[in-house]
Amino acid sequence: MNKAVSPKTVFTDGVHFLAFGFGSGLAPWAPGTAGTLVAVFLEWPMRAQSLEIRLLVAAAMFVVGVWICGESARRLDAHDHPGIVWDEFAGYFLTMLLAPQGWIWSLVGFALFRFFDILKPWPIREVDHRLGGGIGIMVDDTLAGVFAGAILWAIAQSLVYL
Predict the structure, then answer these.
(1) How many domains does the chain have?
(2) What is the DSSP secondary-structure string of 92-109?
(3) Is position 1 within any domain?
């Protein structure tokens, strides 16, 4: 069982503050969903940027996230504390890389990402069980983001031809 983390711990420690998604991971129910909801609002302004910039941001979020999530988990003595939601931020940013503009696409991307992150179909579940530390925390959400993004892109492409 993961131990409860106090708001004081999150808001006074930079690593936990980032790992806990600026506090969104403190949500008492569904912290991953709360973190992803915050990611929706953080990702929205990125839509005005080029694909190259968005790719760089997503890659940086992953690389930095490996350390942030791993260090937060180490300090909490937890494999993947549910309050650690930086991985949700990064996964959602990947989901939205090729998405069209518009809030409906943000909402569909949100739903698809949460679907893959929660259910963890193969190979996501396999990776989640095999990898530890920050890389393990980040990779399963990265895969969820890739799967969700691919489906979101396919939906958008199919609507172009209607």
Answers:
(1) 1
(2) HHHHTTTPPSSHHHHHHH
(3) no
